[in-house]
Design goal:
The chain has 12 helices and 8 strands. It has about 300 residues and is of the alpha/beta class.
Length: about 300
């Protein structure tokens, strides 16, 4: 499997009582397919996997496959603190018919690089599916580094990495020493740098509600090799990225979906909803971004 294009970590819409809204979830997936993103990830941080029961996670993955069918690749997250739990999610993903799995470091446990590699390879053996690694030390507590990549990179199934450390040095390490592990941008405001270093995919939560704008940046940098146009689009997107990093990330993604007419509902505890001022600010940011990117892609600003 080749990871190329925009991969959207889908939100999980909830009813007012906090239960998963399957009809709204299907609508989110259909909107992404219509917008021509290149793949969908279920069971990621944006999907609030950490606030779901094991059965909810498995049922959600199965329903996503039912809705998507073979129209787009489906990647299912296996994140958990216990290796045994991640193995169970990986096995379920294979039974569901997922095209690949997302393998992160186990949060809170703080494994060494060797221990973390054994964790990943144990999941790999259980599912025998293509793997996108997920390096996010801010949430997991540990960094995937050179020793880790040297060990897990020997598996034919480890084909890509969502690099979300924010450390440019790790981007350089992967590009130079582990070119067989395809780079995927996981740190939004570094998307331009990732594409310059050869990344061909971007896992971006904002594409839940601005899919065409994210696709436009990918196409400018990767397909057209037009980094002048890419810089113009990136400049237009930076206010959104700054807003998302200011806190209430999942809440913002869900409200972004509401702005474009998709039901997303509340977030689960311990998170709390956005206030009215935050919602108004996001509305302004989104409106400006859409208008600016439309001008750029139409050629109106001669980018």
């Amino acid at each position: 499997m080749k990871f190329e294009g925009i991969y959207t970590p889908a939100v999980t819409p909830l009813c007012p009582d906090g239960q998963i809204d399957k009809r709204a979830f299907a609508a989110v997936l259909e909107s992404l397919i219509e917008a021509k993103v290149h793949g969908i990830i279920i069971g990621g941080s944006t999907g609030e996997y950490y606030a779901q029961t094991s059965q909810e996670r498995i049922d959600l993955g199965a329903y996503a496959k039912e809705v998507i069918g073979t129209r787009l690749p489906l990647v299912i997250g296996t994140g958990a603190t216990r290796t045994e739990d991640s193995v169970a999610y990986a096995k379920a993903a294979k039974e569901i018919g997922a095209d690949a799995i997302l393998v992160a470091s186990p949060p809170y446990a703080l494994p060494t690089e060797k221990e973390n590699a054994v964790h990943a390879l144990t999941i790999d053996r259980a599912a025998n599916l293509p793997i996108m690694l997920y390096n996010y030390p801010a949430r997991m507590g540990v960094m995937m580094g050179e020793e880790y990549f040297s060990r897990v990179g020997k598996s034919k199934n480890v084909v890509a990495i969502k690099e979300s450390s924010g450390e440019t040095a790790n981007l350089h390490l992967l590009a130079r020493k582990f070119p067989h592990i395809a780079l995927s941008c996981g740190w939004d405001d570094q998307a331009l740098e990732f594409f310059a270093w050869g990344a061909k995919s971007w896992v971006c939560a904002g594409s839940n509600f601005l899919p065409r704008e994210h696709v436009a940046l990918y196409e400018a940098c990767v397909l057209e090799k037009n980094f002048d146009k890419g810089r113009a689009i990136m400049a237009a997107m930076l206010p959104l990225m700054d807003f998302l990093e200011g806190g209430k990330f999942v809440q913002s993604i869900k409200h972004g979906c509401e702005i474009i007419g998709l039901k997303a509902g509340p977030v689960r505890a311990p998170l709390r909803p956005m206030n009215s001022e935050e919602k108004r600010t996001l509305q302004t940011v989104v409106s400006t971004l859409k208008r600016t990117v439309a001008l750029i892609t139409s050629g109106a600003n001669n980018a």
